[in-house]
User: What shape does this take?
Amino acid sequence: MRFNDVITLIDVAPNGINEHGFSIETEEQRNKVFGNKKSVRGSEFYQAWQIGIEVKFIFEMRLIDYNNEEYAEFEGKRYKILRTYENKNGEFVELTLSDLSERGVDDGEF
Assistant: This one.
């Protein structure tokens, strides 16, 4: 399979814990990987839309490059990774992405 796109996977990890047990100062770990941007399937789009989430696109990549990151950046825009789907042979994974700004999500960092 030939990959035509590059996406940056972002892991946001706490850099410490305060005296009340809350995470303080987050640190981003960024990893650029190759893959392919794909359209969202109709059923997936409408199921998400019914609960107020707009799925933007799916990104297919090698499973070995994915380390359970929660966010991604593509073409200068940040997305939340909503769902992952591994293919049958376990070589590839599809990441379903939602635009953070359109969902009204405020994670404190974005």
